[in-house]
Amino acid sequence: KRITFDAILRTIATARLVMPATIVRIAAGRTTMSEAEQILCFSAGANAVFTGEKMLTTEAVGWSEDKVMFDKYGLTPMKPFERGAFRGSSWESLKEGVMGGQEVRDGAAATV
After folding, report:
1. CB-based contact 62:53 (threshold 8 Å)
2. What is the reported pLDDT for 71?
3. Rounded distance between C-alpha atoms, residue 71 and residue 49, angstroms
4. CA 46 from chain center: how many Å?
5. How far apart are CA 30 and CA 19, in angstroms?
6. pLDDT in the model for residue 106
7. CA distances in angstroms from 44 to 78, 87, 106, listed in the order given
8. Cβ proximity of 45 and 13 under 8 Å
9. Do residues 29 and 37 lie in contact, with contact meaning Cβ atoms separated by under 8 Å?
10. d(CA 45, CA 19)
11. Collapsed DSSP state (helix, strand, coil) of residue 96
C-alpha cells in the first residue's frame, strides 16, 4: 500500500525537528512524485536526494532532471561526502559546526 503524501511530509518535518543537523534525504519513490511534491518535501525539511537513473532495484530520477529542478527553484547540490573528513576534528569544532553557536543544556539549546 502506498504511503499518503501528507504522511511523507509529516515524517520529513518530524525528522527535521527532532534531528535538526542530520541529512534528510528523499530517494526511492521520487519517480511517483510530481515536481511540486518534491519541492514541498524540501520545504518540509528534506535537504538531499539520491540521483541517478537507477538504484539497486528501483527506478530513480536522473541527474539531468534533478539539475533542471534545482536550477528552477534555486537549490544548490551538496558537495560529495568525503570519507574520513571528520577524523582529526575535535568534538568541540564538530559541535560548533552543527549547533551554530548553541550549547545544549538539560535538553534545551542556549545561545553561547
Report:
1. yes
2. 93
3. 15
4. 4
5. 22
6. 45
7. 18, 32, 27
8. yes
9. no
10. 10
11. helix
Q: Helix 35-44 vs helix 5-18: angle between axes, to the nearest 10 degrees?
A: 30
Contacts of 40 (CB under 8 A, 6+ apart): 9
Q: What's the pTM value of the predicted model, to 2 decimals? A: 0.66
Closest CA to 75 of 110, 106, 36, 48: 48
Measured between alpha carbons, how far is 36 from 42 in angstroms, rounded to an integer? Answer: 10
In angstroms, the CA 65 to CA 72 distance is 11
Question: What is the per-residue pLDDT across 8-41, written as a single tens digit (0 to 9) for each?
Answer: 999 999 999 999 988 898 887 788 899 999 999 9
Q: Is 54 strand, coil or helix? A: strand
